[in-house]
């Protein structure tokens, strides 16, 4: 059975993600792009619990 790791996101990283999403959605008026980026980031972060050495 594969080992599952705990992925911790720092407060600073969380703030930077929120700032980037806000900028894309509100300043660039690209709401769909912001949501897509957020989904991609969340999926990538979640996958690290199973593949922590993934380079993508």
Category from helices, strands and their pairing: mainly alpha
C-alpha Rg (nearest Å): 13 Å
Overall average pLDDT: 91
Terminus-to-terminus distance: 23 Å
Please provide the ordered H/E string of secondary-structure elements: HH
Largest sheet: none
Amount of helix: 55-70%
Large-scale geometry? elongated
Number of strands: 0
Q: Could you characterize what this model shows?
A:
By secondary structure, this protein is an all-alpha fold. It is 61% helix and 0% strand. The protein has helices at 11-27, 31-47. Helix 1 runs antiparallel to helix 2 (31-47). The longest helix is centred in the middle third of the chain and has 17 residues, at 11-27. The chain starts with 10 loop residues before the first helix and ends in a 9-residue tail after the last helix. The model has no long low-confidence stretch (mean pLDDT 91).
Give descriptors for this structure.
56 residues, 61% helix
How are the SSEs ordered, and which strands pair?
Blueprint: H1 11-27, H2 31-47
Give a brief rundown of this model:
The protein has 56 residues and is mainly α.
């Amino acid at each position: 059975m594969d080992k599952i790791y705990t992925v911790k996101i720092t407060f600073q990283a969380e703030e930077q993600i929120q700032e980037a999403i806000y900028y894309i959605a509100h300043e660039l008026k690209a709401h769909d792009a912001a949501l897509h980026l957020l989904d991609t980031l969340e999926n990538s972060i979640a996958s690290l619990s199973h593949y922590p050495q993934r380079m993508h």
